[in-house]
Amino acid sequence: MPTNIIHLITFTINHLSFTINKEMLDLKKIDKSWTLFLDRDGVINHEKYQDYVHTWEEFVFYDGVKDAIKIFAARFKYIIIITNQKGVGKGLTKLENLHIIHDNMRNEVEAAGGKIDKVYFCPDLDETSSNRKPNPGMGLQAVKDFRDIDLTKAIMVGNTISDMEFGRNLGVNTIFLPTTRPEVSLTDKRIDASYNSLLDFAKAL
Predict the structure, then answer these.
(1) Nearest-10 crossing angle of helices 137-145, 161-170
(2) Residue of 26, 31, 41, 126 marked active site
(3) Within a 10 A sphere around the Cβ of 116, how many other Cβ atoms?
């Protein structure tokens, strides 16, 4: 039985190193009809080790993220955040503080010339919840809210295999950032491409 050959190629261009599955993702096809889904912690902002970001004062953007989202805003139709927030479900993070974090995050991104069309979060503790990544519920809700989203023209960017599984379950392309989990193998079939940071991905467009 014939098998598909996966072409994983590592590039270094202008000091940016990235790995891409040649058969799965062609960045040249991306235009204003595409949608970009982004995880939050570990992608946009620094994670807190074995803890949650509870307040705006604890929220720290990664270097270059606001510049990256400015680039994305010129290339993608929609930019949507998809984030699990179990700290709310556990009662450790106040819901009002989560809303403050997201409002301030969006305001700072917009002030830098970018945009975030909507933030979806799941506070559920049940791992089988349809809305908790890697299940696709939040993505499917986005499709209901933005009816012209085409999932064949969409990318999920995350820093965990759960994010990659979410992308596969939703039926979109995946990009992995090894910001917090450098041990993950980039040959994993759930990963279509990998960049060191969100800004590296933006510069590759």
Answers:
(1) 50
(2) 41
(3) 21
Residue 26 a catalytic site member: no
Closest CA to 60 of 118, 122, 108: 108
Domain range summary for the chain, segments of one domain joined by + = 8-204
Task: Name the CATH architecture for the domain at 8-204.
Answer: 3-Layer(aba) Sandwich (3.40)
Distance CA 21, CA 204 (A): 14
Are 124 and 137 in contact, with CB atoms under 8 Å apart? Answer: no
Q: Is 39 among the residues known to form the active site?
A: yes
Which pLDDT tens digit goes with each residue over 106-136? Answer: 999 999 999 999 999 999 999 999 999 999 9
Going by C-alpha positions, the residue among 140, 139, 195, 133 that lies closest to residue 164 is: 133
Catalytic residue among 39, 163, 192, 200: 39
Q: How far apart are the first and last CA of the chain?
A: 36
DSSP 2-55: --PPP-EEEEEETTEEEEEETTT--GGG--TT-EEEE-SBTTTBPPPTTS---S
Q: Which two tokens stand for residue 51?
A: 């803890």
Number of H helices, E strands in the chain: 6, 8
- Given a cut of 70, is residue 40 above it in pLDDT? yes
pTM: 0.88
Q: How far is CA 55 from CA 19, 161, 193, 196, 202, in A?
A: 34, 26, 32, 26, 28
Q: Which two tokens stand for residue 6?
A: 């996966």
